[in-house]
């Protein structure tokens, strides 16, 4: 494959792997989990498959569907759920078979319906992503709070955290019998969380909500699969990060500083090593908007992340 000199070839589409975390429960893990490179998954039985999310590009989604097809012996893709509206989890929806019934939160559906990035990604990222031959495909079933679907004789609960968190229309997929949680982007394992289209306080509350489920295996929206004691470590990292963002934002607001000024003056400390650190300024913008009771236009604040970084945000999608 082509690549820029020095580019890490281990994070291309070919590096993604399907991992069976419990019998019939699969995680599609895509290194390195940075911008636009998501995790997905599936719950499978002889009678059919429930997919959890698709991928940003046609190529990455095709690889996921092909791997799943061989792992499940060609069982039909009966159902799919989108954990939220963002393109890294939804642009590949149109590669699903026509017969697949797609489920999403009603605000996720509206978010994807009005998404303009699928029609052409703005140059906030480098290289500018090319999604390939995808088209907007919206959920057939819109969920307002929570619902349960049954796949291969087992229940899969699709649960909404109760308010804005990563976005306004998040769903997680929870298997209560296997104690496996597909957390979507309520969790980023070892990468900077992104909540500028949701709520920092809501995302913080959602961490406790996830912890109360007491999962044994967590498939985060980005980053490696978590098991056992790793789960609490990552949940605590999220709590500390969100409290850090809230604290820095409130200090900045009190001093009349802009989010970009605050971000430039902030030592990210233990979070400095996480990929996509520039999300800090986006997350600050979310707190400012919420504290001031106004809407936030994502396209209007993304330039601040580019300014903080000193250039477009790198992506290997
Ligand atoms: Zn994502």
TrEMBL record:
This one is known as MBL fold metallo-hydrolase
Q: One Pfam family name from the record?
A: Lactamase_B
Record-linked SUPFAM superfamilies: Metallo-hydrolase/oxidoreductase
Q: Where's the Metallo-beta-lactamase domain? A: 37-222
Identify the domain of life: Bacteria
